[in-house]
Amino acid sequence: MISYRELGVIARGAEAELLLADWMGFDVVVKRRLPRGYLDVRLDARIRSRRTIKEAQLLHEARLAGVPTPLVFLLDTVNSEIVMQYIEGRRLKELLDVHVDIEVLEEAGRLVGRLHSADIVHGDPTTSNFILAGDRLVLLDFGLSYRSRDEGDKAVDLHVVKEALSSYHHDVYEEGFARFLEGYVATYKGSGIVMDELRRMESRGRYKQVV
Amino acid sequence: MSTCLGIESTAHTFGAAVVSEDGRIMSDVKDIYVPPTGSGIHPREAARHHVSEAPRVLRKALVEAGISIDDLSCISYSAGPGLGPALRVGAVAARAISSYYGKPLVPVHHAIGHLELGRLLTGARRPVALLISGGHTTVLIPKRRRWRVFGETLDITVGQLIDQFGRHLGLSSPSGPKIEGLASTGSTLLELPYTVRGNDLSFSGMLTAAKRLLARGHRQEDVAYSIQETAFAMLCEVAERALAFTGYHELMVVGGVAANSRLRAMLKAAARRQDAKLELVPPRFSGDCGAQIAWPGIMYYKGGVRVRPVDANVIQRWRLDVVDVPWIE
Prior knowledge:
Oligomer: heterodimer
Strand order of the largest sheet of chain A: 1-2-3-5-4
Strand content of chain B: 15-25%
CATH superfamily of the largest domain in chain B: ATPase, nucleotide binding domain
Low-confidence stretches of chain B: none
CATH architecture of the largest domain in chain B: 2-Layer Sandwich
Distance between the termini of chain A: 42 Å
Order of helices and strands of chain A: EEEHEEEHHEEEEHHH
Structural class of chain A: alpha+beta
Mean pLDDT of chain B: 95
Strand order of the largest sheet of chain B: 3-2-1-4-5
Radius of gyration of chain B: 20 Å
Order of helices and strands of chain B: EEEHEHEHEEEHHEEHHEHEHH
Low-confidence stretches of chain A: none
Number of helices of chain A: 6
Distance between the termini of chain B: 24 Å
Number of strands of chain A: 10
């Protein structure tokens, strides 16, 4: 049993809720995966505890690969909770709205490049999941992340970045994505193949006209 | 009042229906090809079945609707996706009637038919849709003149998973109801791969693993139970995610797999968890039928869509998110 004091809800998603809490005088974030009462209880418990463990592992592995992520303090596999460092800063999404130096997208590209070098796919690298804390860019939410060497899987990460920029930050989209790729190419040797795969993927099927 | 004769022949079912422009289903007749026990559908055999049943089904659809061909406004047919030989039977019938009687011809995408008939019958206005059949496992959102794909299977469909597992047990196809019966007496949850990638799903690994469990001596009932619990949990997860993402308040389920009562109960709870209402198509119309082709047929007809008989082809592989549906805002 982890003892912390809840201070409020930060966000509530389809799968989990994020709480702000106080743990031994630190501000922390608690990510709690909520039960799905309609599942076989054994299956529900298995899914939640495995995902919680995997997310904590990948947060840690990403950090070892040189990608700043919140520190994991505690892990409760019974209640499916991760207690992690609270990152004080502003989300990239808000920063791009109020016009920020586009340089920061090159750093975002470097982070994704380092992640892919370590064969980790983030799964949801939208501009909401980068936080600028002081002069350090931090990557958040590894809830959909997984290990993969596959260029197609990595290309989907790039596609998500591209979609996020073109739909929410259209004014900086072209230059912004170019800067992102500069950072990506500079930190990841396999970037060429992934970018080819991205072009192939976008020329066919559903990615040609997504929502 | 405009009326449309719709012809469906994508896979097992040869169906014909007459629907009016105000959405009244005046008739809906079908005959289903049943393959020999333990084997799946053979496209040529399905086509042979359709050829022999087509005249009777078509005539009955017109008689039940109380309408003569002369009074119809248009003919629509299922142009794909599906089994080539089966599809061509419906297309040939549609072309023949159209050119002989001089009636406009309208091609309809089979899955768009499921979705639009679903909206007509449930009254759902702006739903997240879960299309689960032998041919599709897709979560969709209606937006800007298209049904947009939110998530889908990366390999086989849930229908194929259940059917192929059933065939492995020597059951006749479609084996969904029998698997459901087996599962209802199972109780041990065996471990199967639960694969959700972002908003996409994968079931082929589960099929392989399930066969391996049988080979190791696990009871059929328990394996069937575990397949249902695991596969349906994956579907519910993506449906919940789509509801959370869009903020929509309706979850509409269409396609043959929706007949499974365990799945319906799970989806109802999943929808409630996201503050949404579950909308189910009546069983009579959740499988393949002529009405799903006749209803979009009349909508397209009113929008001016026509195809010349000489150009009325079938498309075996046809993604539904490239099809224009002009009446979606």
